Amino acid sequence: MSEIDLTQYKGIWVIAERTQSNKLAGVSLELVGAAKQLASQLSGEEVCALLLADNDDVSPMVKQLSEAGANKIYLIQDDCLKNYSTELYTKAISDAIEMKKPSIVLVGATTTGRDFAPRVSSRLNTGLTADCTELSINEKGLLAATRPTFGGSLMATILCQKTRPQMATVRPKVLAKPEPDESNAAQVEKLAIHLDASTSKTKILDCESACEVLCARIDEADIIVSGGRAMKNAENFKILEDLAAALGGAVGASRAAVDAGWRPHCDQVGQTGKTVSPKLYIACGISGAIQHLAGMNSSDIIVAINKDAEAPIFGIATYGIIGDLFEVVPALTEAIKSKQLTAC
Hints:
- By secondary structure, this protein is of the alpha/beta class.
- It folds into 2 domains: about 190 residues, HUPs (Rossmann fold), CATH 3.40.50.620; about 130 residues, Rossmann fold, CATH 3.40.50.1220.
- It is about 30% helix and about 20% strand.
- The strands form 3 sheets. It has a 7-stranded parallel beta sheet with strand order 5-9-4-1-2-3-10, with helices on both faces. The chain has a 5-stranded parallel beta sheet with strand order 12-11-13-14-15. Strands 6-7-8 form a 3-stranded antiparallel beta sheet.
- α8 links the parallel β13 and β14.
- α3 packs across α4 and α6 runs parallel beside α9.
- The chain starts with 11 loop residues before the first strand and ends with a helix.
- The model has no long low-confidence stretch (mean pLDDT about 90).
């Protein structure tokens, strides 16, 4: 492969993601905040967001991206982009990158981002660092993308020295969301990218939104009650649902519980599931495998409930309860409900 002129590539891009309900995904704002920090370490680099959508009104999302700190927002609007399509999104993003030549491209490590990001990097003959937990600029001005490796036991920092753009996917909730700045007014530019839905090998007939609602709750919830292998079956998750309802939270699960078919994959917390950072995380019958800890160890308060006093989860827990979850959890739920009734 012949060497490319790296000086042609300028700017830091965030690929903004829309939810199925046509709202901006929280990780997009987190990435704009990260891009601002990276840009502050470089000279003359703009922070840009690329937003793909149909021809409906996108002004609320544009406003959010602007207030998060984007200097420029590139829009690709076409009715065939209403619902996510691997082929069409890959083409649109690749064509936009080839047209504008950003130096760095950041993508949320969501189901959608994990799908198109490697395809885009392959089409552009560049590298991609996946599932990053930290981003910085090294002494040579390169993106230093850090991610867990060997099951989370080591952290690897990866550089992309000879190709552009430098690409990374970043897990939701590992970066702080910037405070909105209403004084910031991003420039908006529409890109003319030719898309032909008839060339796509797949056709979207219908979209099911139920799983997205569950996923959004896990991603955004301030309180999460999670269950592991010790839950024994799907029906027993009812006691966790009751506790979560009393607290106004959401229900999560370990990989073991998901693999057993007790909860849908969009409830999974951990290295191969969702990264969450709630104010309160209650781990019920979860031993604390390093893959699970990687997805929730940034929670403000962690409460562990487990019969095994030696379970690794107690090593990171703020509070630990050694006991049978089938006795402890219902008792907690009743105590919380009684407290609420007393307050009323």
